[in-house]
Amino acid sequence: MTARVLGVVPVVDPDWAVRSLAGVPLVRRAVLALGAPGGPCDTVVVVVPSSSRVGVVAASLDAAPRCAGILAVDDSGGASHPGGASHPGGARGLEVPGAVAAALREREAAGEAVDVVVVHDPVHAMVPAALVAAVVAAVLGRPGSCAGAVGVAAVTDTVKRVGPDSAVLDTVDREHLGLLGTPQAFRVHALREMLQAVPTGPTGPTGPSLVDLALDTGRQLVPVAVPPDALAVTGELELELAQAILTADARPRADAPLTADARP
Question: Burial of 112 by CB count in 10 Å (0-12 exposed, 13-18 middle, 19+ buried)?
Fold first, then answer.
């Protein structure tokens, strides 16, 4: 039987999520990655902090494929993020565990069976659709042995350990370090148990990130490599860098053969 996969895009900071990257809003890029043709997601739900933000986000989605709609939750007073990236302006107002729980309840109430939930943050808008398929495949490829799979980028900088007196001590081995990001895929039964293990606020489960919840409850997660150019777009500098990367990708390669029209 084919697994049913639900994609969830928690919009922690709606004002940032609608910023344009190469003419496409960040939130739309996240939804397109989840709902790509031939991809694993059957349905995508976007979750925003409050009903007052539905309109601005909806305008940015522009009838994205497989998007079942936008779900608004009441302001909860705190924000945790799927990945390790910080959101611009210290955005507050959406608890990601509660957002994911609300999306899951909404789809199941509509009669939709769900086996795997994929969470994708708009700040990781540079992630290709192939990575979404890869995290889902990593979960489904290990039946019973893991709760989920998460996107992890390699650490390429030199990392130093600093002592309590601020003295530089030594170099940390990068081999076992990684930068957490999204997409993150979880088996639905494990996800439910994880969400039940955290406090419940007015809008549902609150507290740490989904990855922290998994680790705190002793669950195994599988890392899936994130492409080096899929940087987290968390500020103006990253937005400019991402724009430059996309612009360069759109140019013909230096070693690409000339077309008939382009030959001198």
Answer: middle
How many structural domains compose the chain? 1
Q: Is residue 174 part of a domain?
A: no
Domain ranges, residue 56: 5-151+180-250
Q: Mind listing the pLDDT tens digit for each residue in 190-205?
A: 999 988 877 665 555 5
Q: How many angstroms separate the Cα of 234 from the Cα of each of 103, 191, 219?
A: 24, 27, 29
Q: Is the separation of the CB atoms in 120 and 183 below 8 Å?
A: yes
Which two tokens mark 17? Answer: 């999520």
Domain of 191, CATH number, reads 3.90.550.10
- State the first-to-last Cα distance of the chain, in angstroms, to the nearest integer: 56
Are the C-beta atoms of residues 202 and 73 closer than 8 Å to each other? no
233 pLDDT more than 50: yes
Does residue 94 form part of some domain? yes
Among 195, 101, 186, residue whose Cα is nearest residue 148:
186
Candidates 24, 201, 186, 193; CA nearest to 99 is: 201
- With respect to residue 255, please indicate whether it lies within any of the assigned structural domains: no
Determine, yes or no, domain membership for 165: no
Q: CB of 149 within 8 A of CB of 135?
A: yes
